[in-house]
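Reagents: none. Just compute today. Phosphoribosyltransferase domain-containing protein.
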Amino acid sequence: MTAVGADLESYLRDWSASFPWAGETTIAIQPMPLAPGRERHRGFNQAAWIAERMRVAWNIPGNRSALLARRPSTFAQADLTHDGRLRQANISGTFVATRRVVGPVLLVDDVVTTGSTAGEAAQILMQAGAPRVYLATLAVGK
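Predicted 3D structure written out:
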């Protein structure tokens, strides 16, 4: 494991009681899915890497199959201005639930800028049955 991974896992263990989802007895961890072409281009999904560190740090067993899939959006969100309306329009309709969700979900993303992507993903998860959706991110964009 990398030093960054070990540091992140240590932080997650040390501060786990302070997270808003700490009281949940079970929780599904869902990394923010990338558009298929974007993931092929990058070769990995950084949100999935972060989510895996969370699973290890909190010793969460179980099903790692995705609750969400992502269709390609018109433009990469990072390439758009910080105009929330433009980003929301771009991401609308790009997520689909892969199955019924039966418990709370921790949605994990690397960077949140306007919250459009996270909001759209959370809405789809709740429509699929999630009673609560939490968001964890490493950075907030300007």
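The first strand starts at residue 28 and ends at 31.
Action item: order primers for follow-up constructs.
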